[in-house]
Prior knowledge:
Number of strands of chain A: 0
Shape of chain A: elongated
Structural class of chain B: mainly alpha
Number of helices of chain B: 26
Helix content of chain A: over 70%
CATH superfamily of the largest domain in chain B: Sodium/glucose cotransporter
Strand content of chain B: under 5%
Largest sheet of chain B: 3 strands, antiparallel
CATH class of the largest domain in chain B: Mainly Alpha
Oligomer: heterodimer
Amino acid sequence: xxxxxxxxxxxxxxxxxxxIHLGIWVFFGYIIxxxxxxLNQVTIPVLGFPLGFYMAAQGSLIVFVVMLFIFAxxxxxxxxxxxxxxxx
Amino acid sequence: MATATQSESAAAFYKQLGRMYGTYTxxxxxxxxxxxxxxxxGVPNRVIGYLFVFFTLAVYxxxxxxxxxxxxxxxxxxxxxxxxxxxxxxxxxxxxxxxxFVGMAGSLFLLGYDGIAWVLGWTGGFVLVSxxxxxxxxxxxxxxxxxxxxxxxxxxxxxxxxxxxxVCASFTYVTAQIYGTGLIASRFLGMQxxxxxxxxxxxxxxxxxxxxxxAVTWTQIAQYIVLIVAYLTPIVxxxxxxxxxxxxxxxxxxxxxxxxAREQQLIKDGLAVLCTAANCGPTTLKPHVTPFLNYSPLxxxxxxxxxxxxxxxxxxxxxxxxxxxxxxEARDSVAWSLLFIFLLYFSAPAxxxxxxxxxxxxxxxxxxxxxxxxxxxxxxxGLIQICGKNAASLDAVVAACKAIAGHPGVIRFQDFVINxxxxxxxxxxxxxxxxxxxxxxxxxxxAAALSTADGLLLAIANALSHDxxxxxxxxxxxxxxxxxxxxxxxxFVAVVAAYLxxxxxxxxxxxxxxxFSLAMxxxxxxxxxxxxxxxxxxxxxxxxxxxxxxxxxxxxxxxRYFPGFGVKYAGMTSLLNPLTRAPxxxxxKAMALPNAMESFPTLAHPLANKVGWFDxxxxxxxxxxxxxxxAVIYVVSxxxxxxxxxxxxxxxxxxxxxxxxxxxxxx
Lengths: 88, 667
């Protein structure tokens, strides 16, 4: 594979990963909160939170944190796979 | 091998940092314990407060002086060797301001579910930083955000626009931080507000002036440790006391259930009026978990979007990721940043719930004469009002309630008004904790305000010294002169901000929210398109910045300062009540008043902040500006010639972590 093709393949993989994570971000940042009233019908057992409230106050935040650690790993893997990672 | 020794020395450096900050944290905890003992043996509260503030300020100043530097790369980007984990902590402190530490829990108390828009907005933006912008700017190798704009978009005009956006977004923000230091210092130390502001200024300057980014980085880490310990300690104790489990983030679910039961009871007893579609005015009770009573869905999601995208566009946050040793570490670092920020943000709703439960159980519905004494010290400062008067003493409250015709002698929901700042600051007292915990909270609030102020000041001063002075005015300036100019500018910006804060401008807190929308409209489209779309041309970007930023600032300024003009000439109408959808003001009536066309009116003006397009709050002006910015960049770019081969190769280059940075600053 020429370096130009390799670069393009690397960028395509990166773009794909970007859209996947952007999708998760849109879902947990916005879409799920549009159904807050439905979710609030459910109460989390033991803890006592209404589910819709919980997702906004904690659930989505936990998703964002975990997602960023996973993203960092995945992007790093892509970089290494196409030989464009920094030397360690 | 050069790389082997390099990674060895990096590992040694990392270990050394661990030892240093480990010792520091241990020392800080020991210091708190020591003060707790001093309190028990009878040292007065005022002395404890002073010891707290001066000890922590002294530590920051010592770090600031010890890390002074005469090297440009150290001054501007901390030598690019801050490990991901520590840069995460520094970013956390940089990010969490006085508003996050002191004000957010209070907003959640007042707004209930709708307040969570701020929590979501101020965390989710880091996702955008990591996947769209941060690592690419790190690869580019700039000292400032305008550096990138200038290189990618054809020179100094784009640089100048970026500096304008940066200064507009950062300056009011830094003023609010200095205002915050003054407020905290004056409340806890009894200093005069104006003096406290300038005392805070000295603390900020000692940290930032000698060592620039390098000094700010290492003090911000120290400040993060203080602020997170201070924020979590009171509610951990409170949660253990009430529910037997030291994890408030889990136990406050039960507090929320109790609040809901209590709300029902208050309404049944006739002590509160429920907000309904027929009447949802400011004195009605809005159940804590019911959404969209304070913000309409459009404005709720608008705040989330503007705060998130604003996060990814604020220069003082982006520049923190210029300091990591590699692109990979920049990415890791964003994840650590969000983890450290998350620790505070997912605890804020717990503060709100515990306070609300306390207020609903022990204040509202209780006899006027049975009020607890902690209330009066805040009432004296005008932060708690009962029956329409400052609750300065029991007699004052009793008299004020008696003056209301038909008052039942029991505190009703509408009788009680609390300032949002009180929630966090008063929690230790409400829980009956010793004063040392209150002192700890004050030290934490100061750390939050100082660290954010440092980062912002540096961003402004660097843009002025590096972008305006060095790049545009005197490109041949020697290192020593560049550093001197940077320090002098830092000093002047800080003094101007402190002066402005000391005049207590009324809009200052609202302006922090504006900063996000301004940064969003001005920076985000150009940054994202510049990295992700090679076809973006310089003309397209410049037009996009002007159009997007221009529209956003027009909307802000008109709705706040020229509302009559907006109604008459720009087709603006009244904003609506989120639930009843009734207009907030009767436009026809308000326009007939003699002051309708007044410029720069106070907030009491009937139209100020209450008009707009599409029922959009002016804090969300980024929702208008950013889409316009994207559209203009796209259309204008397609109309022009595609960027040169060199520019396209350059964009390819920043997309790959391997290889040298594009911009190589001489040192």
